[in-house]
Fold these 2 entries.
Entry 1:
Amino acid sequence: VQLQASGGGLVQPGGSLRLSCAASGFTLEYYAIGWFRQAPGKEREGVSCITARDGSTNYAASVKGRSTISKDNAKNIVYLQISSLKPEDTATYYCYTPPNNWGQGTQVTVSS
């Protein structure tokens, strides 16, 4: 089981990014996937998740209304689209599937 996050980068405030979490060794369609982030000096926090069975989604209050999590089962990838980015979105973003499978992070920096 392996997860690979990508799509981070430097973006100006107000911009958008689409993060990708590619899976290998298992089929994403049958697993819940979560996105987490960790800013320097802060604890890791949950950002969004999507369930396996019905694809229902949840979002942290900090990104709700400006982010969308989705699965592309054909490509075995989960996406996290975040728009209206703010400097406080700056963090390393990780994808995760239970029980303890973390992808390497992808850095998102929001700065002018």
Entry 2:
Amino acid sequence: VQLQASGGGLVHSGDSLRLSCAVSGFTIGNYDMIWFRQAPGKGPEWLSTINTGIGRKFYEDSVKGRFTVSRDSAKNTLHLQMNSLKPEDTAVYYCATADYTYKGRGTLVTVSS
């Protein structure tokens, strides 16, 4: 099983980024999948869930309206579109199954003011 997040980088406040999480070893449509992040010196912070099946989506309040989770079943890839980025969004971003059974390597997002 592998989950590899990509798409991070250094951006300015107000910019957008689209993160991807390529998954192998299981079918993401069969699992509730999440994005979470960890900022320097802080604990993990859940950001978003996309449910299996019809794919209901849930968001943490601080990213609601700015971030959008989606999945590409054909490519077995999870995405996180991040708009209106703020310096406080700076963190390493990870994808995982909702029960954290499978967790990938993260991608660093740095937002400068």
